[in-house]
Amino acid sequence: MPDRPGLATPFPIEDLPGAVWLLAGPGTEVVAANSRAAAHPAPLTDPELLAALATVLETGRPTRVGLTGAPTRVALVGPHRDAAGAVIGCLVQVVDVDEVAARWAVAAAQNRLLPATLPVVPGYHLAAHYVAATQPGRAGGDFYDALAVGGGRLAVLLGDVVGAGLTATAVTAQLRGAAISALLDGDDVDGVIARLDRLAAHVPGAAGSTVCVAVIDPARGELSVGSAGHPRPLLLTEHDAGELSWRIGPPLALASERPPAHTVGIAAGDVFVLYSNGLLNSGVFADSLRGVPRDVESVCSHLIGAVLDGGAALDDAALLVVGTDPSRTPPLSIAVTAAPEQLATIRRALREWTARIGLDAEEVLGLQLAVGEAATNAIEHAYRDREPGPVRLTAEVRGDGDLVVEIADEGEWRTTDPGENQHRGRGMHLIRSSMDELDVRRGDGGTVVRMSRHLGRARLAEEPEPVDPPVAEETDADTVTFEVHNSHDAVLVRLGGILDAVDADEVHRRLQQLSRAGSAPLTVDLSGVRLVDSTGVRVLFELALQATAAGGKLTVLVPEGSLPHRVLSITGLDQVATVIPG
Known about the structure:
Blueprint: E1 19-24, E2 29-33, H1 35-38, H2 47-59, E3 63-67, E4 70-81, E5 87-96, H3 97-113, E6 117-119, E7 124-131, E8 142-148, E9 154-160, H4 165-184, H5 189-200, E10 210-217, E11 222-228, E12 234-236, E13 241-243, E14 262-265, E15 271-275, H6 277-280, H7 296-309, E16 317-324, E17 332-337, H8 343-357, H9 361-381, E18 390-397, E19 402-409, H10 426-434, E20 437-443, E21 446-454, E22 456-458, E23 481-487, E24 490-499, H11 504-514, E25 522-532, H12 534-550, E26 554-558, H13 563-571, E27 578-581
Parallel strand pairs: 24-25, 25-26, 26-27
Antiparallel strand pairs: 1-2, 1-5, 3-4, 4-5, 6-22, 7-16, 8-9, 9-10, 10-11, 11-14, 12-13, 12-15, 15-16, 17-18, 18-19, 19-21, 20-21, 23-24
Helix pairs in contact: 3-4, 4-5, 8-9, 9-10, 11-12
Pfam families: HATPase_c_2, SpoIIE, STAS_2
GO molecular function: phosphatase activity
Protein name: Anti-anti-sigma factor
């Protein structure tokens, strides 16, 4: 249906779910509709809908109404305005809530089958994206994954299951799991596809699915790739971009024999692209990538942008981009004197090193927290009652994608006096909450804290934004700042900076003084604090317990989702004080 002059739709209504009509006001003339609406008459005799149209035309505010005699159908009515903002019609969207719920269930299940993060493996950069089909009943079935398989090699796979909906999602789970299991067992590309062939022959709905599997071996400079009916991947070099050419086999469970995997050379700086039919249907081919920068984010954004710019996605589109990194980040190794002032030096070195690796923001937060706690313990306890000695930090990303960090000192392990503050020792709890493994080795030559975490990098977002480091650049003057506000019997203190071992004693002294040893209500605002370590947590616990004993109250305001909020949540400060996120 052509758009009427003055009422041209400002957005593609074809992409909207359900049946959509554009009406000219103040009457009910239909001037545009999407394909689902064109197949059905507009429910313009429904009294509830007519009343809603009149209300929207009068007030300009959107509303929602249930349709008479159709308990699962809901009409969403919104104003349509001209360039000057005047209401000149209404947009009516009718959806079946049961159908929408079913689509959401499929989308949620499909999303859970995709890896939440991609591995961080030395020598590689990865990016991935998935766009679900907008047409009802078409979503579900694409999958991908990547994993280190030893010897510096990286395995990647991308598949497309026949059909759609929950049935396709169930098949996807089985095929992806079988492929990962085969790779972890040491199967080569041909072995992985052979295992998927056997599985697809016995799983209803799996026959006819397609998959592409590849293993990159940088030591040999080789890429081994095999395909079961899947589109040939792209290889982008410094000066060229093209589709790999070799004889591929038919889809899974449909071949009596298969051609062997294809091997090609791959050099540092090359980019390898796996994609599904949904991307092929968008008309994007290698030629369009010739001028695109050879980094995985640019390639991924360019290809997915072409899919999104095309309007409604008729089929799922999955994309996995692998870049071979010509320069590997060397391990981190620094040594400082065991003094609280050196915590800033450790944080700065760690921040610069993680920036070169390109870790996900969540990984950086956890690493900063764990390393800070281990370093603080060494600084506070290793050289007690003696001249401060060295504290050494080493960190590296191993070939399996595990980050291994060690904090070592040459002092003596100090056994905690049972009579000391009961809230000491929370640093180890913070480390365990941020790392996968923790091992503390004590000996005559000192203590070594070894911790590790399997790294993952977030999949590329539709509109990627740069992530600020969790702690801003520090200066020599970066100490805790105080801003005190007195109101009747209550005191509000806004803190800024970093609350760690450097200023913990002074902060405790001043807050204790302001709260009159816990007898006066005290509110501590941490919105300006970038980091709180276990020594800062100990200060807050001691103030809270003191306030409870003296009949006072401690309230802590902390930005929700911030690093201080995470630390306070892990350590359970809300059990002894009022913690208000916001």
